[in-house]
Amino acid sequence: MRFELNKEFLEKLREKIAAGDTAWISEHVLELHYADIAEILDRLNNDEAKYIYFQMEEEVQADVLMELDEDIRDRFLASLSSKEIADQLENLDSDDAADILGELSEEKIQEVISQMEDDEAAEDIVDLLNYDEDTAGGLMQKEFIRAKLDWPVNRCLVELRRQAEDVEKVYTIYVVDDLNKLVGVLSLKRLLFASPKTKIVDLYQGKNIIYMKTNDSSEEVVKIMEKYDLVSIPVVDLQNKLVGRITLDDVVDIIKEEADKDFQLASGISERIESTFSVWRITRARIPWLFIAMLGGIVGAQVISTFKGGITQVPALAFFIPLITAMGGNVGVQSSAIVVQSLAKDNGLFDSILQKLLKEALVALVNGLILSAFIYGIAYYFENATLGMVVSISLFCVIIFAAIFGTMIPLVLNHYKIDPALATGPFVTTLNDIVGLFIYFTVGMLLYHI
Amino acid sequence: MRFELNKEFLEKLREKIAAGDTAWISEHVLELHYADIAEILDRLNNDEAKYIYFQMEEEVQADVLMELDEDIRDRFLASLSSKEIADQLENLDSDDAADILGELSEEKIQEVISQMEDDEAAEDIVDLLNYDEDTAGGLMQKEFIRAKLDWPVNRCLVELRRQAEDVEKVYTIYVVDDLNKLVGVLSLKRLLFASPKTKIVDLYQGKNIIYMKTNDSSEEVVKIMEKYDLVSIPVVDLQNKLVGRITLDDVVDIIKEEADKDFQLASGISERIESTFSVWRITRARIPWLFIAMLGGIVGAQVISTFKGGITQVPALAFFIPLITAMGGNVGVQSSAIVVQSLAKDNGLFDSILQKLLKEALVALVNGLILSAFIYGIAYYFENATLGMVVSISLFCVIIFAAIFGTMIPLVLNHYKIDPALATGPFVTTLNDIVGLFIYFTVGMLLYHI
Description:
By secondary structure, the first copy, chain A, is mainly alpha-helical. In chain A, 65% of the residues lie in helices and 6% in strands. Chain A is elongated and about 90 Å long.
């Protein structure tokens, strides 16, 4: 049965911790999968978490540490000594260890590393810390399995057994030449079923090897691993020497994070935040966008005040202000969302900007005609045929304009290497509001001959 | 070197196809990775694609077929005979074959299956077609490697070699008892390094086995595979018998699709569309939301017309209509985005609805105070202190209200099993517009004593 955390369990556990009932804890907590234990520790206070943590086996400790929520882990690590942290790092994969170190202060990093007993592990971690975390080098781990071209299968097995102790998950063996340059890959399955005397050179696959360079961006890594359906990918340095591998589970985390970030950007939230964060941190991530929207509203007020005479003479003009701004905003957001996604997928590779604009303009034309025809009757009912014409014509213009604008902004942002997902948020809505109001009142003044 | 598709290559390829230059094609296309070949075929017309397709080896054909864009694949399959499709299916993994069949008509499915020569493969595919595509059963493949508890390692290797022919990627061996019930897992690495006489029962891991049931939802599968960092997961039927496995690469596709869908829903697009779709299909996915926004605008017009007297007496009241609606919309979208993401992550498990609302209200209070103070001065500049008070007080109320509303709507949708991401779209904006206008004008009438 899969473990399901609930309030009753947590309460009971708290009691048992308070009572120091190690037998109960050992049976009901320590036997669980590390991901489940981490989920439990996420909900305990630091002392309770530590109490349980130090009853676990060392290997499990490392796994649990990696699964903790980042906030909880930071708090937890802060309460450990440098020596205790160093002990944890030695049981972690090098990429995870480097990630954890990266969360500490420069000074603390030095301390922890000097406390590590396994020099080789320490060296790997220090090496990984040199790479930017958004690159293949920052994502890779130093644990992978390597075979040489001229090894026979039985020698290979002996060597691999030695190497494999450090490598938790083995999917593919990387084949290198004498200079440690990557020349191919070999699946574990092929090795398993080969006869002992066969040489690696006769088994390995050297065609179309897919690999990353240490300085490739993490987006590039995601794209390549997805495109080629890979579970792990080797990483080479600038001299084509094999230096690490990236596994799909790390990439899945990036995919999720990117999706969350885009969703939040589009919703007007500037940092990655979670509902568990403090009121202050949530406010800080949200208020910049609200200021942008407010400035837009102020400029909008300025636009309308320019046309004050129109409203004095035809107060009904004010009725459709929200309709015009809402439609401009919605059309703009739709258009930019489509562009943002097509940019993310490189779908646009073969369409010129002109083609994209043309297509969006066509969609806007169809939408605009349908919606404008509909609104004519409604506005007529509110006031008269003139207002019907004003709303209908300006709505049509606003829809066309918002679509073109919504398409252009993310393309421009992308061109200047700014995340185009920014555009789908309050940015595009605010600009469309202002221009929409201007169009609406200009059409109004013209048709009412004011 | 990784292959990069560009316009020049495509043009050259088209010429070579027209000239029937099979030597060039064989050297420059057929040697590529199947994912690259699929990328090329996506850009060719159907006849060109077929010309290349039937020059590939059978195994590559199947892989390329799975990598094609769905639209392109549908078009391509439509141009093949049932016999030709049946031949392709036999080279595919059962889950992929079932997915492809699922895209055909009921009648065509019958035809294709009757044309398949491999009865066992046909049976597997028919079996998979019975499962809902959004369940673990619909995601799983029938290709996996199974070992029995009492086998020694050498017997196991012989059996596995036989089974492994059908299984492209082997990560984990599933251990079953005599009734085919799942009792544990065994990593290929452990098997590789075990001595021939050791029995599986002494090697396998039978504690904390993570598996799915055929009727678990695909969201559940994603959650579990992510939580436990799995590359593949076994699937059992209602009697706990092992019936299939799901691999992480299929799950990555779901994660991407879900993220895309949420992003589009939040941007007011109702179906998953891509920029390459036809103008009509894009319009169809967008216009429903625009109608909702328009209806909101019409109700807004109704609200304002109720307060027509106010605008006639104080035309400046109209100036801040866009500011009020924009702020209500933005705050609402922010709040609902946070709730939607916390629901997706089960973060909310331990917070009651009241706690969530309280936190959002607090954030709104802070934002509201800051922004209202700021806007007071601005509105004062436009007209007078009274307008300053009207805008400032109503903005504060609108922010608080929009935050509560934005939090509640996704929770309610979620309660009724409707995708809460719907709420972050035009839905919440539109409702907030209407209520915002009502608050604004009510405050205006009160303070101006109209």
